[in-house]
């Protein structure tokens, strides 16, 4: 099956959620639900938890096998607050890259660094972002999402401040690495929160809304980073990350209500962790959607890691113009998330992913062929990039949600493993790019072409096989 827990309609999902407090459980029988509601309305919420409890008038209340929902399920966060929270948590990562990319060549000059060290400020952050998720995921399954978010986002703020004050490339790499640890907590908990509250295609739609907010943050970050770098210097660009982290920390501290209904007391036991990971890694659904999200993520990473040097050093674009180009790319990504939700309303999840694969392959092939034909320039890269970003807006929410969806009781661990696969592939891509960067566009254009081919193959073959397995 495409989703091993099955897919539920919107009305069925809300029925299951509000009747039992957990997505996917069978709804409470109407007669018992009515009786329980009557008891609750008289202020005797604990009465139906005990069989044969005697009331004040001597009557015995019949036992009702209904569990009281925890407080946060009686007072769920509003959908708009969930989307805002997702936007902030997921947006910490693109902001950490897009805000400083326009200033990266200047940082290398002022701190007397090398191109390899410049790539390391991005690659090391992404490596720890991926590895740390293997720790944050089980921790969030054990202690809940809220505590982990407070620690992780707090770590992000401290690391962003340290990076702002760094005076050597080595210290900048160190603080950026710690920043990746904090991002790991925010992203893994953000994905797990969606699985705590939603399933199937509804989860993909909610994740798509959160990624629209992520795209908005990325859209603002690029030109803002360029503007701050030109007017106030590169340290101002990094200082903006401190402010964004503080906003996310305040929202988590004041507005976020725990979404994990039943923390797993055994989640940190080595044997249980190993069993959870083996169960997740043995799932064909997990690998299919994780590879889809990984290919899409590596396309974006390849562009971000190489574009500042290609656009600024090779094509000699001003940093402000480069920031605006990044903003148009982010705006196209936002359109892709809107397109994703529209397609999901008309077609199945698998059909939507296949359409995204066509967009990605068309753009990647155009970019690769133009560069091989000697047609070089900013627009020979940016125009083919736009359909790729439309596909990115489809594949990221569908891929991330699909990888976690089969594992409601270990959503943190599943989100962590999926994120680790993504960032591990991006780290290896960075290692491949670093020595090849120079006065050429080919590592950028051919690297993106390679990953779009991989995306199309996953979208058209394994994803569609899951669809056919569902139909039997």
Structure described in brief:
The chain is mainly alpha-helical and 472 residues long. 76% of the residues lie in helices and 1% in strands.
Strand-helix topology:
Blueprint (H helix, E strand, L loop, with lengths): L9 H11 L9 H12 L11 E2 L5 E2 L9 H4 L4 H20 L5 H7 L4 H29 L1 H20 L4 H29 L2 H32 L2 H22 L14 H12 L2 H31 L4 H28 L2 H24 L5 H27 L6 H23 L8 H19 L1 H10 L1
Helix pairs in contact: 4-8, 4-9, 4-10, 6-7, 6-8, 6-16, 7-8, 7-10, 8-16, 9-10, 9-13, 9-15, 12-15, 12-16, 12-17, 13-15, 14-15, 14-17, 14-18
Description:
This protein is an all-alpha fold. It has one domain (72-471): MFS general substrate transporter like domains (Growth Hormone, Chain: A, Up-down Bundle), CATH 1.20.1250. Helices cover 76% and strands 1% of the residues. It is built from 18 helices and 2 strands. The protein has helices at residues 10-20, 30-41, 71-74, 79-98, 104-110, 115-143, 145-164, 169-197, 200-231, 234-255, 270-281, 284-314, 319-346, 349-372, 378-404, 411-433, 442-460, 462-471, and strands at residues 53-54, 60-61. The chain has a two-stranded antiparallel sheet. β1 and β2 (60-61) form a beta hairpin. α6 (115-143) runs antiparallel to α7 and α8 (169-197) packs antiparallel against α16. The radius of gyration is 24 Å and the shape is globular. The termini are close together.
